[in-house]
Amino acid sequence: QVQLVESGGGSVQPGGSLRLSCAFSGSIFSIYTMGWYRQAPGKQRELVAAITSPGRTNYADSAKGRFTISRDNAKNTVYLQMNSLKFEDTAVYYCNAARGDLNAWYDYWGQGTQVTVSS
User: Fold this and answer.
1) What is the DSSP letter of 33?
2) Is residue 49 classed exposed, middle or buried when 0-12, 13-18 and 19+ CB atoms within 10 A define those classes?
3) What are 75-91's pLDDT values in tens digits?
């Protein structure tokens, strides 16, 4: 059973930085596409960034140029470096692991970590 544990959230002033980490266990990390999603109060969960097994990345427009997703397959960990944080980045950030084969789609979520940007 895949387990995802996020860490690194907290409170930061606008313009500050945070680095989120997500520790993966229970399966073969390197075959999963890993993603970071966020959900602000009253809003739907949205993709922030994703990284495939070979390392291709995709970012939401709101994250481009400010956030960087990376993975360390030796440590079974995915990271989200967030710079130049804005008030609107305030949300619960969730780690996601996903993969598919001919028979099924496998999708796992962490418990979330709160990021609050305030002055």
Assistant:
1) E
2) buried
3) 999 999 999 999 999 99
